[in-house]
UniProtKB/TrEMBL annotation:
Domain Amidase, first and last residues per copy: 147-412, 781-1038
InterPro entries reported for this sequence: Amidase, Amidase_dom, AS_sf
Compositional bias ranges of the Basic and acidic residues kind: 559-570
Annotated region (Disordered), positions in chain: 551-594, 1186-1214
A GO term, aspect molecular function: glutaminyl-tRNA synthase (glutamine-hydrolyzing) activity
Extent of Polar residues compositional bias: 571-590
UniProt name for this protein: Amidase domain-containing protein
Length: 1257
């Protein structure tokens, strides 16, 4: 028998794993408690002890000098108020499983034609023709694709020795594709404007059978068996791949394993930026166009340096499958071309939804060839080129002075945190293996990624929240259709990439060199401008660029590669050292020399920004030097270790606890997640489940959704007593009710099942709605009934925080007045309801269940409250949330279960569950992050829906985790749940994760066409009834290989929660939390989770989603609703579930024989995301044949010898148990903490329930 021995607080030293928890480990813990600590131990806490001592010392210095100022700046921006009500992060989770469906047809742009184009005499002239011109030559058969391919292959081989821009010439593939294009044309098949046109790809884009080196010596022989999505798009359009062009090593700057790429306009200068090869190759006429990429500046800088037209499109426009990833929320692919017209053609062909890139989608772009310029208002900044302004004004554009205003001063710090942490997640194993020591430039990625290793996850999340604030401010300030400004201003580059803004880089002229090699040298410095548009308005920037280029010819000029001047020559600079990557603090104008890098690194403080090389007395004083010497000697205190993470505010005792927890809890999860996703580098597999959508259309009017078609109940009559009105679960016919209860005992389950002999079930809400609509009862009367019940039963259940009596009467009177005027708002007109007390209602306390916030009044109107109010709903109470939405303990006590009042409701939505169960409200809105709906609904025996993630907007709701939090209804019936969902669903303009889900109508689902699986733990009665209804029921198992789902969930939830309660913890308010082994313990431990491991958890989550999606081969499945593994997986993948009562079982030790207390039995009906209507339809079908959901808990009828006892003294049960049990699944179902090599499971179920059925030692 396997024995799990876990002490309530300190259990490491009794664990049987001697390798980790033996005497050596315990000795180490004792030393830490006494204040002894080494730099090696500090890095062990972060699972980063693989660094050499010297590197650790450098990392500590960089963390203090670079990371901490950015951490402080971001925290100042977004973390001053707790609860996550403001500034959500921009990385969101979209539970979209529809990606494998057929891609919707994208309407192509209307390209102009050039029928009069004639073939030039020289290859040079052909090489610099535009795409449409070359396409016309091929279409008219003046030149074949093979001939054209030969021309560009010759140019690639001729100029690459000078420019060092080519990694691989794909000659064999090029001729194969060119011959195929010619053959198609001979058969009368013309694919489109790219038919037979040669092109090149940046060498981070994979092509089967050819090397994809990523520009790095570590990967120079790598061949990836992946066909990049953008390559497939171009191939299907008939384009011919002739070369893989240089990328800077691992997409950083222009240095690669073969040298350094030169600028064709000044060959003693370098191309500046990691898309150096595409820029130089296009500029030199070595290819008609090339595909490059940008994370931050890698399109804008080399395009400007090399004088080519380029488009950095809206983030998400072009799919990135098969492309090396730096940052999934920043990486973009875009074209380098001769003209803006060419850019429009390429964009049209490569844009669209990539099924394996969660960030990509079908952009609703307009046609740039049909934009009416005279209707545009375009701003110009102070650094805009005057000629561009004048030309566009002459074209009828309304040109106005403009300034983009935002308060975020550390955009560059936000970008550095985002980019570096994401990159480290993709090259985690590379760094751990020490391969960064061989990197081409040590002051680039090696330096940055070592520093990124000690960025705390919570501060990464804070950076994303600050980024979200930046986006909102930029969106608000963007009051023009586009604006013109410097394309290489570093602030604009950082800001533009963070918000996902498109920009056109357009050549506008040339400037002479300051020190030319000869007077007659033709070398020049190129001058460009940027045309910026809001996200999803790339067509505007393209149209403006085309208008400008139609009146100028700067873009047609050819660089002087062959004509340097009589006394001009190329100096051999092969021995040149790679210059520092730190640009000067002051950015030169476009007329001055461009900054050397696309990815510069700056320290941003509240007062000013300085480069790392600048001597700063604040960071470089004698005290700092003394500390460095101390670190180098190996001396390191616990306090100093936490200062490195900007967490020196903890007491020594807490720090010691955190180190222990980090070693015991965090590190095993790090290892498990890394094993899942980090063994291959480059981010080609397992993208993060958190994505960035640069959607500015959210502030526009909410899209119209089609409502469900509800059934009607015109014959409903008002019952005689309030109890029947409160439950409205039985139809009154012929002035009497005949209900006969038959007790059927299932031998295997010992359930007491009740069936009606005569009578019909009705839905609570539709019945009440019909009473109001027919004026058998007024909303005021109905409100009075439920207010009385709230006051009557709350002393027993402790389920209500605030009775909103004044507001309830006000809205009830308004509902009655509207009805008297003939206005009926729908099924919720005048219906009372309750809200979980994490949902803000103006003028009423929103306590979040916590003593720290029990007097808090949030001046916000939650989006879900607004939806209900507009539907005529009447809020009668704010119901109990567990303290800060953790379990059922709150500052006023602990909420009881109406079916067994000596048991607790279990889960933070305890109040909504208990009150709905007890008939204190007809329905309530609750929330779930991980089990907070499923557990209390199951305990209290109510019907509930945890909807698909993103279905219901969460503005005005306390946040635990923006990628996990969901709102949903507790109701009497599944039909009620459908009605409430229909009213509260939809796009919340301030909740980036919400969307208009394409639901079907649950009331019109033909269940006979469904195939539904049932798990081993499914309730037999549910299976049998659904079979009788015509459903095809099959045995089923959900298969996936990710065995650390619960660890992934813990990391996600705890880090996100800490970001929302950062100041609360820093102020020491967690010491007053209602249960110290809940959030205080978890959030202290979360403080030392490195950001890279948070990202690895999200990548592991992405893998889990892929595997669950592939395994979900049925329309829905039936299984236990409270199995902790299903709870974890379901919440991580965004899966909806209906919790449905299916009967009762007797409690083992009732206080008397005639006690009516019962243990409720429920099942879960799970559906794929965005298929909530399937789960609802199945639940409605089941409930139409049973009446378990109509039973009423015995609050008033306890039995003659029964009474309510006082709460036990151990009100707050331990969250960590010592258990002797070999049934692993049973323990998981109860949520017991199990310390394994992968994770520890947090108990989110009732201690009493487990204690009653298991042996506790």
């Amino acid at each position: 028998m396997f024995v799990l021995r876990v002490h309530v607080n300190w259990y490491c030293c009794i664990h049987q794993d001697s390798a980790k928890y033996g005497s050596q480990f315990c000795t180490q813990q004792a030393e830490i408690a006494n204040g002894s600590f080494s730099i090696q131990e500090a890095f062990q806490m972060l699972d980063a002890a693989f660094f050499a001592h010297e590197k650790m010392v450098n990392i500590v210095r960089e963390a203090l000098e670079f990371n901490v100022p950015i951490i402080e700046a971001n925290r100042k921006l977004v973390a001053a108020s707790d609860g996550g009500l403001q500034y959500p992060p921009v990385l969101v989770f979209h539970a979209d499983w529809g990606v494998e469906q057929a891609e919707p047809a994208t309407k192509s742009f209307g390209y102009p034609s050039h029928p009069d184009v004639q073939r030039p005499d020289s290859e040079e002239d052909i090489a610099f023709m535009s795409i449409l011109e070359l396409g016309q030559l091929i279409k008219s058969k003046q030149i074949s694709s093979v001939e054209l391919t030969q021309i560009f292959l010759r140019r690639l081989k001729r100029y690459d020795p000078i420019l060092q821009a080519v990694v691989t010439v794909t000659e064999e593939l090029a001729y194969e594709q060119a011959k195929e294009a010619d053959q198609l044309l001979s058969q009368g098949v013309y694919v489109g404007p790219l038919h037979g046109i040669p092109y090149a790809l940046k060498d981070i884009i994979s092509v089967p059978h050819y090397k994809t080196t990523w520009g790095s010596g570590s990967f120079k022989d790598q061949v990836l068996d992946i066909e990049a999505w953008v390559y497939k798009r171009l191939k299907s359009a008939g384009a011919v791949l002739v070369a893989k062009l240089v990328t800077g090593s691992l997409a950083y700057d222009d240095i690669w394993f073969g040298g350094r790429t030169r600028n064709p306009w000044n060959i003693e200068e370098y191309a500046a930026g990691s898309s150096a090869g595409p820029a130089a190759g296009t500029s030199a006429g070595m290819v008609p166009f090339a595909i490059g990429s940008e994370t931050c500046g890698s399109i804008t800088y080399p395009a400007s340096r090399c004088g080519v037209t380029a488009l950095r499109p809206t983030f998400g426009t072009v799919g990135r499958t098969g492309v090396m990833s730096i940052s999934e929320s920043l990486d973009k692919l875009g074209p380098f071309c001769r003209t803006a017209e060419d850019c429009a053609i390429i964009l049209d062909i490569i844009r669209g939804k990539d099924p394996d890139d969660l960030s990509s989608f079908d952009m609703p772009l307009g046609d740039p060839f049909s934009v009416d310029l005279t209707k545009l208002t375009v701003g110009y900044l102070e650094d805009a080129e005057k000629e561009v302004v004048d030309v566009l004004a002459s074209k009828g554009v309304n040109i106005v002075p403009f300034q983009l205003n935002y308060t975020i001063e550390d955009a560059q710090g936000i970008l550095n945190f985002t980019m570096d942490v994401d990159m480290l997640a993709h090259f985690d194993d590379w760094q751990r293996a020490g391969l960064d020591d061989a990197y081409e430039a040590q002051d680039q990625w090696p330096f940055e990624l070592r520093r990124a290793r000690v960025i705390p996850a919570v501060d990464y999340v804070q950076a994303q929240r600050a980024r979200g604030r930046l986006i909102r401010e930029v969106r608000k300030s963007f009051t023009v259709d586009a604006f013109i400004g410097n394309a290489t201003d570093w602030e604009k580059v950082c800001m533009g990439n963070l918000v996902g803004m498109p920009v056109m880089i357009v050549p506008v002229g040339f400037a002479p060199l300051e020190n030319p090699p000869s007077n007659d040298s033709r070398r020049r410095r190129t001058i460009t401008t940027g045309i910026y548009a809001p996200p999803q308005h790339d067509h505007i920037a393209l149209a403006l660029a085309m208008a400008y280029q139609s009146a100028t010819d700067h873009h047609k000029q050819r660089p002087p590669i062959d004509d340097l001047g009589p006394r001009d020559s190329l100096v051999d600079t092969s021995s040149d050292a790679y210059p520092s990557r730190q640009p000067s603090a002051s950015q030169p104008s476009n007329h001055g020399k461009l900054p050397m890098l696309s990815m510069s690194i700056k320290i941003v403080t509240n007062e000013k920004q300085t480069t790392r090389d600048t001597v700063n007395s604040k960071n470089f004083n004698s005290e700092a030097c003394s500390k460095r010497a101390k670190y180098a000697s190996g001396s390191f205190s616990l306090q100093e270790a936490f200062q490195m993470l900007d967490a020196g505010f903890f007491t020594h005792e807490k720090m010691a606890d955190i180190v222990k927890e980090a070693s015991e809890f965090n590190v095993p999860i790090f290892e498990a997640n890394r094993k899942l996703v980090a063994k291959s580098n480059g981010g080609l597999k397992y993208p993060s489940a958190l994505v960035f959508h640069s959607d500015w259309a959210a502030k526009q009017g909410e899209s119209v959704k089609k409502s469900f078609v509800y059934p009607s109940y015109p014959d409903v009559q008002r019952p005689d007593n309030e109890e029947d009105i409160a439950f409205m679960s039985v139809r009154f016919l012929y002035l009497f009710v005949l209900i006969c209860v038959i007790a059927l005992v299932y031998v295997t389950h010992q359930y007491i099942l009740t069936y009606p002999i005569f009578g019909y079930a009705y839905d609570q809400i539709l019945e009440l709605g019909q009473l109001i609509k027919s004026k058998q009862i007024s909303s005021v009367e109905l409100t009075e009934i439920f207010l009385r019940r709230l006051k009557r039963y709350n002393p027993t259940l402790q389920a209500v925080v605030t009775v909103t009596e004044e507001l309830a009467y006000k809205q009830a009177k308004e509902a009655d007045k509207l009805l008297s005027q003939g206005v009926y708002l729908g099924p919720l007109h005048g219906i009372p309801y309750g809200l979980k007390d994490i949902i803000a209602v103006p003028d009423y306390k929103t306590t979040w269940g916590s003593g720290s916030f029990k007097e808090q009044v949030v001046d916000m109107e939650a989006w879900v409250y607004k939806r209900l109010k507009s539907a005529g709903g009447v809020p009668v109470a704010k119901l109990v949330s567990g303290s800060l939405a953790y379990d059922d303990i709150w500052f006023g006590g602990r909420t009881r279960n109406p079916w067994n009042i000596e048991e607790y409701s279990t889960g933070s939505s305890a109040g909504p569950a208990a009150c709905t169960s007890a008939g204190m409200v007809p329905f309530a809105i609750a929330s779930e992050t991980a089990g907070s709906m499923t557990y209390p609904a199951a305990h209290c025996g109510v019907t509930a829906l945890r909807p698909t993630f993103g279905t219901v907007g969460r503005t005005g709701v306390m946040s635990i985790s923006e990628s996990l939090d969901k709102l949903g209804p507790f109701c009497r019936t599944a039909e009620d749940c459908a009605i409430i969902l229909d009213i509260i669903r939809g796009k919340d303009p301030d909740d980036l994760s919400s969307s208009d889900m394409p639901f079907g109508d649950p009331f019109s689902v033909d269940i006979s066409k469904l195939t539904v699986g049932y798990l081993e733990d499914a309730e037999k009665e549910v299976v049998d009834i659904l079979v009788s209804k015509g459903v095809n029921m099959v045995p089923f198992q959900l298969n996936y290989t990710v065995d650390s789902a619960q660890g992934i969930l813990n990391f996600t939830m705890d880090v996100d929660m800490l970001a929302h309660f950062d100041e609360w913890q820093r102020a020491g308010l967690d010491d007053a939390f209602e249960a110290q082994d809940q959030w205080p313990l978890e959030l202290r431990r979360a403080r030392v989770i490195p950001a890279v491991d948070y990202l690895q958890a999200q990548r592991a989550r992405g893998r889990l989603i892929q595997e669950v999606r592939e395994s979900f081969t049925v329309d829905a499945f039936i299984g236990n609703a409270t199995d902790w593994e299903k709870v974890s997986v379901g919440n991580l993948v965004g899966m909806p579930v209906m919790v449905v009562p299916v009967g009762f079982s007797s409690i083992e030790n009732p206080p008397s024989n005639d006690i009516r207390r019962r243990r409720t039995v429920t099942t879960g009906i799970y559906a794929p995301p965005q298929h909530d209507h399937i789960a609802l339809a199945l639940a409605m079908a089941y409930q139409s044949a049973t009446n378990h959901h109509k039973q009423r808990p015995p609050i008033d009828d306890l039995g003659p010898d029964d009474k309510i006892s006082h709460a036990p003294s151990d009100t707050y049960p331990p969250r960590q148990l010592r258990v002797v049990k070999d049934t692993h699944k049973e323990m998981i179902a109860y949520g017991i903490i199990i310390p394994t090599a992968a994770t520890r499971r947090t108990c989110r179920h009732s201690w009493a329930q487990y204690q009653e059925t298991h042996t506790i030692v």
